[in-house]
Structures are given as C-alpha cells and as structure tokens.
Amino acid sequence: MENLEIARALADVAGLLEISGANPFRIRAYENAARTVEAHAVPLRRMVAEGAALTELPGIGKDIAGAIVELVETGRLARLEALKQEIPGSLLELTRLPGLGAKRVRRLWQELGVQTLDDLERAARADEIKELEGFGATTQQKILDGIAVRRRHVERIKWVDAAQFVEPLLAYLRAAPGAQRVEVAGSYRRHRETVRDVDLLVMAEDSGPVVERFVSYAEVARTELAGDTKATVVLKSGLQVDLRVVSPASYGAALVYFTGSKEHNVALRKRAVGRGLRVSEYGVCRVGEAEAAADDPFAGEYLAGAEEDDVYEALELRWIPPEVREDRGEIEAAAQGSLPALITENQLRGDLQMHSTWSDGKDSLEAMLDACVARGYEYFAITDHSKALAMTGGLDERKLRAQWEEIDEIVSRRTEIRVLRGMEVDILIDGQLDLEDALLAELDLVVVSVHSHFGLPAAEQTERILRAVQHPSVHVLAHPTGRLINRREPMEFDLDEVLRAAAASGVAVELNAHPDRLDLKDTQLRRAKELGVPVVISTDAHRTEDLSLMRHGIAQARRAWLEPGDVLNTRSVDDLLASLRS
DNA sequence: GCCGTTTTCGGCCCGACTGTTTTCAGTCG
Fold first, then answer.
1. How far apart are CA A315 and CA A119, in angstroms?
2. Which residue is nearest to nucleotide B3 (CA to C1')?
3. Which of A359, A365, A504 is nearest to A424 (CA)?
4. Which of A38, A355, A416, A563 could form an SS bridge with A7, CB 3.0 to 4.6 Å?
5. Is A210 helix (H, G, I), strand (E, B) or coil?
6. What's the Å distance between residue A393 CA and nucleotide B14 C1'?
7. At what angle do helices A62-74 and A24-39 cross, to 10 degrees?
8. Can you say how many angstroms the Cα of residue A170 is from the centroid of all Cα atoms in its chain?
9. What's the pLDDT tens digit per position in A184-202?
C-alpha cells in the first residue's frame, strides 16, 4: 500500500464524516493527516515495517497512526468500511464537483436518491435539482458542466501519482531472473503531466520468467492478458501496466517504439521509408521492394536495434530526448543538429516562489531557508500570500513589515544564501494589486497571481491580467492559467496577448512546478519562449519537502524545449535581479 | 482527532463570494 492509497483512505474517511455531519475538527484532522501522508517522501509502509514513530509526522496522532498501520498491514480500514455501510461511498466523488459540498450532496442523496455521477446527471437533466429548496437553475447547470469536465479527465492520472506505483514495481522487476535492463517507456518516460497507463520494457533472453514474476506481483488486482513476451495487468490502485520483454538485440528499437509518442513514431517511419529503411520495434532494416512488402520485420539488411542511439543514427538523426518526442519539430531539429540543450535540474540556482508560516506555509521562514541551503541554492524568494487570501492568513502591510524584520534578523546571521524579499500578490477582480504601490516597490520580487473569479468572461479576464502584468512593480506572473490538473479548467482568457504584454514589459511567466498545476503547460511555455518571455520555474512550496517538486517543473520545461538561457533562475542572483525590470 | 513557550483541556485559519435568497447557507480557498 503506497502513500497515495493511504492518503485516499484517510481523505475518504474525512469526506464521509463530513457528509454524515460529524465534528468539523475531526474531519479536518483526517484531511490534514491525508495531506501529510500524500506529501511525505518516504513510503509509510517502510516506516511501519521499521517500526518508526508515525506520530512524529505533523497531524498524525495515536489514532490515525493506528489507522495507517491497519491499512499497511491489512490493506483495509474498519472505520472506513463502517462509514460506507451508512453512506454510499460513491457520494464522495460528487462532493468534488464544483459547487457541491458535503451538505448539498447529502440532501441530493436523501431527497432525490442520488448516489452516483450518473444519478446526478439524470436528476439534473430531468430538472429535479433546480426544484429543490436552496438549489436553482444556475446550480443545476453548473453541476452538468462539472460532470462534463469530470468525464473528460477521469481516465488519466497525474504522473506524480503513477510514480508511486511505478517505482516499487520497477525495483521488483529488476530482481526478475534474467532481467538485464528494466525501464519505463510510454508517456511516463516522456514525462507527460498525466498518463493513461504505464508501459514497462524489460531486456531478457528468456521472457517467460519475467512475465511470470510480473503477473505474480502482490499489487496486481487482475491480469488482463499474459503471453510469451507481453502481459497486461491492472494494479489494485486501478493503474493499468503493460509489460513487454525483448531480446538485447532489439532493446533500443523497442524502447523507441514503446516510448512513442505515436506521432513521433509515425514521423520516424515516414523518414525511414524515404531512405529505403524499415523501422519496427525489432530494429532498423534496409529493405528492397520485395522485402518491404514482406511481413518479416527482420527482412533485409539489419542495421540497428540494440540501443536507441543506433536507431536514431541509422535514420541520420541525433538521439532525441524522450520529453520532446511529440513530432513537434524535434525530428527536423535532430536532423540538422539543432536540438535544444534542454535544461537540467542542477542548473537551477534558486527557487522563486514559496510560502512560510507567515501565511499558509507549514514551515518557518528559517526552516525554508535551511531546506534551500540543503538543496545547494544560491538564493530563494519568500513569497507569502497577500491579504485578499484571508484563508491563508495573507499579509497586510503591518504583517509584511513584521516579516521583513524577521528576514533582516535571519539574514544578519545566515549569510550562506541570499534571501529575496518577495510576495505572491493577489490580482484583484479589476486587475489592481492587493498591496500598496509603495510597498510593492520595496520588494525584491513581486509575483502576481489570480486566486478568485476564475470564471470572468474571457475579455474581462484578459483585461484584468493585462493590467496586473503592466503594473510597473511586477516581476513574475505566477500559475498564469489557474488550472488544476483533473480538477479545474484553465481560466478563459487570451494568453497570447498576455504573453506579448509580458514580453513588452519584461515580466517573466512562471512555470509552477507543483504536480497539480504545471502551469504554464508545455505548449504554452514554448509559445512564451517564442515570444521572448523569460520563464521562472518555481515550486510554490508550502513546506520544506515541496522544494523537491522542482523535478516536475524541470520535466515540463524540457517538454517545452526550454534551455538554461530561457529560465531566469538558472542565473546568478545579480543577473537575475538585473534582468528583472527595475 | 490533533496539539501544547497558553501544555492534557479547549481550542482548532476565516473572509469573500455565489446563488439563492429577503437575511443567509453553502462553498471555496
């Protein structure tokens, strides 16, 4: 049982308690614990096995620690099952629709008998919901819209969630008899932000024992198919995993083939045909007309297949990093030797968005400093929320000045890293900023972002954001579209116009590295680069552990073809400050 | 249910917005 599954179980308890009308603080305790578990880097199953004290973790006391042990040891949670006896578990997913919370879902269930998404859709279409007291036509429509969004997203899971199941499975398969290499291919290897399933590739002379070990993995819920060299299973978590075992001679070709994307592969094969070659998952062959018509993938002269490098070379191409294999110009670039030198994580010298206990962060300013030092950064910006985000304890002028005092005090003792005085300032509904101009001017780094009124008409939204970007004190537009992967659609506005304005004003756009956001996304970042808009990659950390989310931002940046020169936080602090407009 | 330089009980982040309402419950973040 992985942390994500434990977190899900705890969150389900919280959700069902909420529907049942339990003590709100008890509910929050389960929510807090779920968040802690989800963010924790070490698998709790390992902590349980080693007898480590779970109660050391924030928000986890004796009771929930017991629940975690129960989950790890039995895979079940008695209190969750008891709750599901009272309340249909399917109500939980209804509470995740926008505009529906526990109270309304409870009423829909009790008054209309709604239990599932389908029930809800039927009731909405039959105009039953708008007749309920406290509901109306707008709410009913909002529910239908929410269902439509959910249906579009539900099949794909976030990369970071898949990773929790992939890593232990890889370790397990590497111990398979005869497995010489084990790698993930597919969209996971290309590091797409979400994946539908996971493709694993194993190099082995004898495939049987590998397939055998794969289908007997303890986390397998069911085996969909198991052949000589190929198997498909569904894990207990619901994640589908495909396995393919190939011989060493074909490993590189198979890796190219199974990494994809489909579009990239089609383009490769097209290029091959023009050169009298045939590319398959077994290798690259030179084929005459008769051989090309044959079904045998080994017909003709066998040129390459053992390594990816060889496959690309046979096609007169440089090796192409998986993140850009989308047929978006990478093959042409590889042919001309003009592939970008993609950014790597160790090139970053600082993190430019994070929160502390001054607003909704979980760790103190100095703890964040320690964590940034531990990561080897030369600088970081502390960017707590502004007052409009009351629920985060956002800072007004008085609190901001108090924070500066603390920063000054810390800086006087801690000289090993440069602390930038920043703030994540809310963009208000009319595009004004949530802090006095005089104070904005005193900050080293002004990050602005939208946290409310996501649904403004596109023209108004564009105007609003443009106004903020054009404010003379602003340096960075953070999480520009406001999307939350699988949960909230991006705001409707003219991103291109905003990017042009950012370029004109010397304002950077953020690539928010949080795996729920990854905002801007790859294609949008590439557009930003094209328009000459500088990018910063920031974690938006709310606790020290979150600083490690940077790798997701880096992966996204690589998908966007970004090079170190495109990203401001690869620069020294002096260069950074000089390149941010004054 | 968790937590404790208010320490074993009594707090626990809370203001704004939305859609539904004539005074506010529910939701969001």
1. 54
2. A59
3. A359
4. A38
5. helix
6. 8
7. 50
8. 21
9. 999 999 999 988 889 999 9
Residues 126-165 of chain A within 7 A of strand B, judged by CB, are 130, 133-140, 142
With CA atoms as reference, report the closest residue to A229 among A216, A241, A212: A212
Query: Can you give the pLDDT at residue A262?
Result: 80
3-state secondary structure A230-265: EEEEEECCCCEEEEEEECHHHHHHHHHHHHCCHHHH
> Helices A365-374 and A397-413 meet at what angle, rounded to 10?
50
CA angle A538, A543, A547 (to 5 degrees): 35
Q: Note whether A498 and A480 are within 8 A (CB).
A: yes
Q: Which residue is nearest to nucleotide B12 (CA to C1')?
A: A25
Q: Is the dihedral of CA A569, A487, A243, A247 positive or negative?
A: negative
pLDDT tens per residue across span A421-463: 999 999 999 999 999 999 999 999 999 999 999 888 888 999 9
* Cβ proximity of A188 and A159 under 8 Å: yes
Tokens of A457: 């008409």
* Nearest-angstrom CA–CA distance, A98 and A170: 37
Q: Is the CB of A55 under 7 A from strand B?
A: yes
Chain A residues 388-447, Cβ below 7 A from strand B: 388-393, 429
- A200-245 pLDDT, tens per residue? 999 998 888 999 899 999 888 888 778 888 888 888 887 889 899 9
Q: How far apart are CA A475 and CA A497, in angstroms?
A: 17
Distance between CA atoms of residues A373 and A416, nearest Å:
8
Whole-prediction pTM: 0.78
Residue A454 CB partners (closer than 8 Å, separation 6+): A482, A488, A491
> Which residues numbered 342-381 in chain A sit less than 7 A from strand B, measured from CB?
360
**Cα separations (Å) of A495 from A87, A392, A491, A514?**
43, 27, 10, 20
User: Could you tell me the distance in Å between the CA of residue A406 and the C1' of nucleotide B15?
Assistant: 26
* Cα torsion A122, A124, A127, A133: sign: positive
Which helix (H) or strand (E) segment is A26 a member of? helix A24-39
Q: Kindly report whether the peptide bond that precedes residue A520 is cis, defined as omega within 30 degrees of 0.
A: yes
Peptide bond into A412 cis (omega under 30): no
Cα(A570)–Cα(A576) distance, rounded to whole angstroms?
8
Closest-lying nucleotide for A13 based on CA to C1': B1
What are residue A422's phi and psi, to 5 degrees? -125, 180
